[in-house]
Amino acid sequence: MNRYKSVIAYDGSSFSGYQIQPNGRTVQGELEAALQKLHKGANVKVAASGRTDAGVHAIGQVIHFDSPLEIPEDKWPTALNGLLPNDISLQKTEKVHPDFHARFSAVGKEYRYKIYTSSYRSPFKHMYECHYPYALDLDAIKAAIPSLLGTHDYTSFCSAKTEVEDKVRTIHSIELIQKHDELEFIFKGNGFLYNMVRILMGTLLEVGTGKKSASDMGWILSQKNRIHAGKTAPAEGLYLWKVYYSSSNEEEEVI
Amino acid sequence: MNRYKSVIAYDGSSFSGYQIQPNGRTVQGELEAALQKLHKGANVKVAASGRTDAGVHAIGQVIHFDSPLEIPEDKWPTALNGLLPNDISLQKTEKVHPDFHARFSAVGKEYRYKIYTSSYRSPFKHMYECHYPYALDLDAIKAAIPSLLGTHDYTSFCSAKTEVEDKVRTIHSIELIQKHDELEFIFKGNGFLYNMVRILMGTLLEVGTGKKSASDMGWILSQKNRIHAGKTAPAEGLYLWKVYYSSSNEEEEVI
């Protein structure tokens, strides 16, 4: 048996999220269906670095699966992409040690959140970026970022629906890139709680419109209560961009 | 009665083309339905600069319509976008002279054709760019362009399904922009025949793979026969980018 690690990209627009469920089309469901075809009907279980919600996209989601097939690493994308729907694409596969686990071996993650601020909705962006046609004070947003970094209990920035108990995480950086009428926020950390990036993003947008101030961030963190942070930003702007493993096999951006 | 000229953008992926038809969702159908709602049930006929086929996109399609409503120019996008589906967006409206006609007043058009050459399909580009993961000799393509420019009878580059009789058109320029693994071809001319940009593009791609040579272009034109040109390139890469009117009211790129 071989363990394979793959980087996959998907357009989350038409999925009920990553994780398989009884009703609704899921990324995991499509991956396992394609692998089952390739394995002549045998079930192949896929493990991912983490779930993504309905509408959330992935550029560098990482999965692993075990297979008796001896397909060369560079032939896997061709073999599987023909069996996958057009909104999922396998970008890269490598054979890894049987101890490798897409979720438990991950040491960090990068998410990106895309916003466009043009006055009118774009027919090409409405599923891929959050439309936010309101004046934003970017300096206020930048001033709010430092107090959100570091190691904290991020309960205030986590959906109450989570089942995770330990809510301490480390955010290494939040970077803002501005191009014309588009904003891209890059979040890097050792891990993120359920809805954490979208709640951080929604809170930063409220700082940008003056509803909250940069100096509120420390207090919100200290309250350990979701009701003090901003609204959860919409799913369509969010991308799981990259999953980091030990330095020797860091994922490249592949799309 | 006022005549209004509007610039609209649409994602052609889910349309059976621009022009209204008995079956199938069309851009014109959606525009007229939205205008009918705004006019309390009265029919409002929309005229466009030209049709686009199923799957073809528009960044700067231009339409005109007549309306008794005295809505200020800058309020039209807000008024109509709320009644339009997410894959059509009205970007700009101005009141024009009653002699203005979106089609007959046009003096030129710009189309763009987008290609991505990465080895594997992208889940984010498959509806918006043509996937062409084959080696292309861009120098050969550039060498083929000059003989396609100027004023010619473009019968060889026009779908046999056309009903237009005069197939003489002028192509001002064909420009190639390369960014990483993406190619963008910019076609500017006084007008384009049915499928003309896609057939020009398909022919240039065959030059890029060596199936045709740059020196074949003049001969293909001279034959005035569609069978000598290359295959029609897929719809998803094509964008109606801009429509030019007399110099005083040239359209801006608005998206």
UniProtKB/TrEMBL annotation, chains A, B:
Keywords, alphabetical: Isomerase, tRNA processing
Q: Name one GO molecular function term.
A: tRNA pseudouridine(38-40) synthase activity
Q: Residues in domain Pseudouridine synthase I TruA alpha/beta?
A: 8-104, 144-246
> Where would one find the signal peptide in this protein?
none
- To which protein family does this belong? Belongs to the tRNA pseudouridine synthase TruA family.
What biological function has been recorded for the protein in this entry?
Formation of pseudouridine at positions 38, 39 and 40 in the anticodon stem and loop of transfer RNAs.
Q: Which PANTHER family match?
A: PSEUDOURIDYLATE SYNTHASE, TRNA PSEUDOURIDINE SYNTHASE-LIKE 1
This chain belongs to which protein, by name? tRNA pseudouridine synthase A
Its lineage opens with:
Bacteria, Bacillati, Bacillota, Bacilli, Bacillales
**Protein's gene:** truA
